Amino acid sequence: MGPSDSHGRVLFNQVLNSNDRTRAQAQGGGATSGNSKEKRFLCMFCNKGFSCTQKVEIHQRVHTGVKSFSCTQCHMHFAQAGDLKRHQRVHTGERPFACMHCEKRFSERSYLRIHQQKKHSTL
Ligand SMILES: [Zn+2]
Ligand SMILES: [Zn+2]
Ligand SMILES: [Zn+2]
């Protein structure tokens, strides 16, 4: 019912001044022992609370611009999409690296090289 077409101008109200003092006194009693139980690791950007420091670091990437790629199959996170893609082969079973000497296939090139050195070491 009231004229509220521009509430930006009502920001500095005199009534708010007196209200603020009583509210500050009421809060002063137990404000310090409020939310320091479980989520005591705070984001340094938005003060959001987390239960462990690793979760804070992952969350803070939304502020720092570091892209976080999280696996949909497990709880692992990766900074690069390629790392996530490579990791997800453990879930999909994809093995693009085939040994040229036998039928074995591997999810990572380094595994293939180790295999070839072990099983087919012609060096
Ligand atoms: Zn944050
Ligand atoms: Zn995973
Ligand atoms: Zn082989």
Automatic annotation (TrEMBL):
Tree of life domain: Eukaryota
GO terms, molecular function: DNA-binding transcription factor activity, RNA polymerase II-specific; RNA polymerase II cis-regulatory region sequence-specific DNA binding; zinc ion binding
Residue ranges of domain C2H2-type in the record: 41-68, 69-96, 97-123
Disordered: region residues: 16-36
One Pfam family from the record: zf-C2H2
GO cellular component, one term: PcG protein complex
Keywords per UniProt: Metal-binding, Nucleus, Repeat, Zinc, Zinc-finger
Protein name: Zinc finger protein Xfin
Organism of origin: Salmo salar (Atlantic salmon)
